[in-house]
């Protein structure tokens, strides 16, 4: 199943060039299988090597070095999982679901539950009146100024890089994903239970074979690297200088795609690790395009190339943008309020 935010506001006229992107929707099973094999097999091999380093008493620094690479591969597995939730990785809906469940277990995320919440993100992204569905919590300047001291402190802590990119991601994947999201259907609830049971089985088997301590020393740093990188990518997809946000009565899904979703231009190796998710403006334009066709789509449609790229260096500055100023129609920093 593919979720398209354009359907939510049918009255908004489609750009003339939009039809040119449709030919990149069809999936390629051979490419998808190769992506899965070339990512999951090296990932499991690295976990095995990490386990051997711990069991044989090698310096833990060697384990962590392998864990950094494994974490990068786990991030890529999550991108494949993400494609499955959009019904885009392979041609078969059934196999998108099956692969999604497998990748979901590896990434500590329930397939159906996350698919539903992520669909909510697609139909509310950039809408100031419908915030809070699968996105980074963002307050407006007026909301922040009118909040209590405790609310201000909580929000500042939430937006602090140590929590936003460290404690928060680990909490989300280890604990938050262990129970269903509010408003979920029965299948969403069952997907969480199935994923939790599979993870519990892995923990029991690990305890009985390599030992729980070894499992934690191996899996925890890998998950931390992947979770942090994943949240960093998600943060920069909709939190950057010049981003488009609007109240619901003015909300335009095309502007959300082209102005409210970034084109995060990354080095080729990092583009591979992140499964082309940097072409996020194209993904929000057409969520059904598989990750392995996003570059092809970008190269073929000139209008998509007009989106200013967000570079690695420039993205670092996005961390200081914490509030949305409706009067100025831009993200601003806490410090800018003090200057005013």
Structural features:
two-stranded parallel ribbon; disordered N terminus; 15 helices; 340 residues; mainly alpha; three-stranded mixed β-sheet; globular
General description of the model:
- This protein is mainly α and 340 residues long.
- It has one domain.
- The protein has helices at 29-55, 60-85, 93-106, 111-124, 141-145, 149-159, 161-174, 186-209, 212-238, 253-258, 268-273, 280-285, 294-300, 312-316, 334-339; strands at 139-140, 263-264, 309-310, 323-325, 330-332.
- The strands form two sheets. It has a three-stranded mixed β-sheet.
- Residues 1-10 have low confidence and may be disordered.
Provide a compact summary of the structure:
This protein is mainly α and about 350 residues long. The protein contains 15 helices and five strands.
List the helices and strands and how they pair.
Blueprint: H1 29-55, H2 60-85, H3 93-106, H4 111-124, E1 139-140, H5 141-145, H6 149-159, H7 161-174, H8 186-209, H9 212-238, H10 253-258, E2 263-264, H11 268-273, H12 280-285, H13 294-300, E3 309-310, H14 312-316, E4 323-325, E5 330-332, H15 334-339
Parallel strand pairs: 1-4, 2-3
Antiparallel strand pairs: 4-5
């Amino acid at each position: 199943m593919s979720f398209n935010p354009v359907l939510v506001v049918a009255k908004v006229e489609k750009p003339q060039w939009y039809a040119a992107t449709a030919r990149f929707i069809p999936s390629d099973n051979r490419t998808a299988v190769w992506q899965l094999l070339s990512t999951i097999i090296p990932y499991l091999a690295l976990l095995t090597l990490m386990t051997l380093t711990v069991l044989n008493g090698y310096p833990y620094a060697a384990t962590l070095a392998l864990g950094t690479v494994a974490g990068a591969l786990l991030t890529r597995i999550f991108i494949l999982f993400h494609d499955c939730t959009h019904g885009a990785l392979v041609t078969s809906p059934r196999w998108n679901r099956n692969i999604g469940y497998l990748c979901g277990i590896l990434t500590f995320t329930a397939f159906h539950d996350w698919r539903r919440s992520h669909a909510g993100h697609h139909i509310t992204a950039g809408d100031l009146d419908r915030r809070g569905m699968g996105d980074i919590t963002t307050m407006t300047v007026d909301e922040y100024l009118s909040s209590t001291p405790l609310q201000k402190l909580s929000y500042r802590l939430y937006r602090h890089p140590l929590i936003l990119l460290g404690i928060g991601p680990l909490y989300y994947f280890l604990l938050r994903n262990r129970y269903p999201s509010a408003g979920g259907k029965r299948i969403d609830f069952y997907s969480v239970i199935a994923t939790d049971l599979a993870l519990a089985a892995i923990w029991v088997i690990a305890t009985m074979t390599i030992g729980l301590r070894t499992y934690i020393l191996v899996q925890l740093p890998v998950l931390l690297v992947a979770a942090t990188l994943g949240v960093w990518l998600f943060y920069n997809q909709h939190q950057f200088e010049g981003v488009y946000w609007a109240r619901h009565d003015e909300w335009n899904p095309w502007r959300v795609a082209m102005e409210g979703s970034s084109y995060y231009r990354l080095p080729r190796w990092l583009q591979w690790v992140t499964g082309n998710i940097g072409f996020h403006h194209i993904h929000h334009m057409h969520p059904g395009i598989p990750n392995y066709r996003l570059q092809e789509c970008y190269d073929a449609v000139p209008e998509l190339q007009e989106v200013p790229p967000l570079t690695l260096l420039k993205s670092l500055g996005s961390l200081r943008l914490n509030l949305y100023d409706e009067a100025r129609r831009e993200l601003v920093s806490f410090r800018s309020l003090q200057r005013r």
